[in-house]
Design brief:
The chain is of the alpha+beta class. Helix content is 39%, strand content 16%. Strands 2-1-3-4 form a four-stranded mixed sheet, sandwiched between helices. A hairpin with a 5-residue loop joins strand 1 and strand 2. Helix 2 packs parallel to helix 4. The model has no long low-confidence stretch (mean pLDDT 97). It holds the Pfam family dCMP_cyt_deam_1.
Length: 142
Amino acid sequence: MTHDEESLLRRAIELAAAARADGNPPFGSLLAGHDGAILAEERNTSLTDRDITAHPELKLARWAARELDPAAAATTTMYTSCQPCGMCAGAIARSGLGRVVYALSGEQLDGLKPPGTAFVNPPSEGPALYAEARVPVEGYYR
């Protein structure tokens, strides 16, 4: 990692600290262009916005999908204080961002949390009704 990349990652950590100071979970992210210039910054606002999806990575992925053409998005790097969760990782993939650099891994984050505070996935079942469910999808991705 270069000195400039470390500086950008440190800025994401500063945004995480600001989120915590505002009463939100401590996560921050920024999106940098191919030249390292900061294009946008976000921090977690899930508590103050009363929106469980208000993660900085998701907000930046949405911004990039709206504001950048696909070629420009592919040249960006997201610097984030923590490894993106599954929801955010999916949004990042769909937005076409080029790269993600994170400070804490998900495993490291879990090690910093008290026992019993991890999210638990509800039971799920499927697939089911393939013949019916495929009708609205078939041919869409051509």
